[in-house]
Amino acid sequence: MAFVDLWGLSRQDIRSSVVQYCLQHPAACPEILPLGVASAVVLGESVSSITEGIAAQLDLNNCEGDPCTLLEAEIARTMTELAGRRTELLEDPYRLYSLARSAPNPDLTGIGSYWDGHIEAYESLRARLGNLMYAANELGCKIPPGAFATLTLSAPKYPLRYSF
After folding, report:
1. 128 lies in which domain range?
2. How far apart are the C-alpha atoms of 122 and 124, rounded to whole Å?
3. Residue 74 lies in a domain
4. How far, in whole angstroms, is CA 91 from its chain's centroid?
5. Cα-Cα-Cα-Cα dihedral of 10, 40, 57, 118, to 10°?
6. What's the CA gap between 157 and 90, in Å, rounded?
7. Cβ count within 10 A of residue 86
């Protein structure tokens, strides 16, 4: 027997309605839409342009062999880069959180970057991962294990050891 709710809608109708609502109100549905899709909708991009953009970036239309292989490899590479950036933020080897939070301070840190810049780079990579996953899903490709878990990890608010 098919599921029918009190208003006579099927599960498919409900799912379509939820997705449509989330596409129009992405901030209300962060757990439903991939981060990249939500970001794109907020910025006014069409959802189909995400897949087209990823296809163009990775040159999927001209690649030799299966485009899914290339997408899966790019998702895995992005996951690895995100993990490395997250580790660096948690360890904060240059003490950017305490010495250069919102602006570079190379005299004290020895490098020309700052904490907030690393957070922005992390979140940008996270959005890219969401877009790659969305494109893979649209093309019927497998999404590597751990990709969804990686996508849900926001940037750390502060390092594990905070020192002045």
Report:
1. 60-152
2. 5
3. yes
4. 22
5. -130
6. 9
7. 18
3-state secondary structure of 78: helix
Give the residue from 132, 133, 139, 148 showing the smallest Cα distance to 53. Answer: 132
Structural domains counted in the chain? 1
Scored b (16 or more CB within 10 A) or e, 110-130 reads eeeebbebbbeebeebbbbbb
Are 54 and 128 within 8 A, CB to CB? no
Ramachandran category for residue 106: left, alpha or beta (phi over 0 → left; psi -120 to 50 → alpha): alpha
Residue 117 included in any domain: yes
Interval 33-86: pLDDT, tens: 444 444 444 444 444 555 566 666 666 555 566 788 888 889 999 999 999 999
Is the pTM here over 0.85, yes or no? Answer: no
Quote the Cα angle for 26-29-33, to 5°.
75
Residue 117 has pLDDT above 90, yes or no: yes
| Any domain includes 93 | yes
Answer whether 130's CB lies under 8 Å from 162's CB. Answer: no
CA 106 distance to own-chain centroid: 30
- Determine phi and psi for 44, rounding to 5 degrees: 90, 5
